Amino acid sequence: MKNINGIGEIILFFVSILAALGWFFSKYALVGFPPVGFIGLRFFSAALIFFPFAYPQLKRLTRSETIRALATGLFFAIFMATWIMAITFNNNLGSGAFLVSISMLLAPLISWLVFRNKPLRTFWIALPTALCGVYLLANAKGDLHFSIDSSLYLLASLFSAIYFVLHNQYSKSIPPLPLTTLQLSVVGVICLTYSLIMEPWQADIPISAIGWLATSILVATNFRYILQTIGQRYCHIANASIIMLLEPVWTIILSVILLGEQLTTIKIVGSALILSALLIYRVQNLIGLFTRRNR
């Protein structure tokens, strides 16, 4: 759809800020909820909100499409559970956001290994650059020692990449609203089931935690998804891809302001290397896409 005076870019710029804020909404909610239980409540509630709007399209999905949506939702659940465990252990959400963002470079590698989709040549420049950044961010002690939270962020990045590859491979024909509703439902059911069996719950949950849970559901999940869908309709794919790379940038800025994360020189260099790698690959990826389309 044609861009209207840059409205798509403005909306997606706001969406990138909402995505960053979602890290902090989740962090604050953990004072009253067990980590995986929080994710379960957040995503199951978001799915319930979407369900009435998605129901007409859900009825038209074939059995094969439903199975594919549920299967990709399983890896989405594993990714989210790992991610929430990572942010439970520390206040360095900015570094974590950059570590998780390398999933966009792990995804082409996984797609190549599993589905033989060969990545572009610049991938072999972007990946080593990103790995140098990962080393600087994760090696706080500088002696090949990775902390628990850094290891969990990297594991979450791996699961995010697997989810992205499977989602892209198997869900192209499914409309976005029913697909999202089914995937959110899977995350909610799996995480809630695990939490009720394995995690202790507080007898008295603080009102503030309930408020952050509601904010995570309504603002960071439902409202963000709606805005992102609208923004992408009015924004060129090249601009959309670059704008959404701002999420870890906003996250690290907010982490410094709200959580007192120490922004050392090594951390700045590591973050800059990862962001540079993402930009190198994203721009070349889009050039390759446009070249193939115009042949």
TrEMBL record:
The keyword Magnesium does not apply. It is a multi-pass membrane protein. It is found in: Cell membrane. The chain crosses the membrane at residues 7-26, 32-55, 67-89, 95-115, 122-138, 144-165, 177-197, 209-227, 239-259, 265-283. Residues 7-137, 152-280 form the EamA domain. It holds the Pfam family EamA. This is DMT family transporter. It comes from Gallibacterium trehalosifermentans.
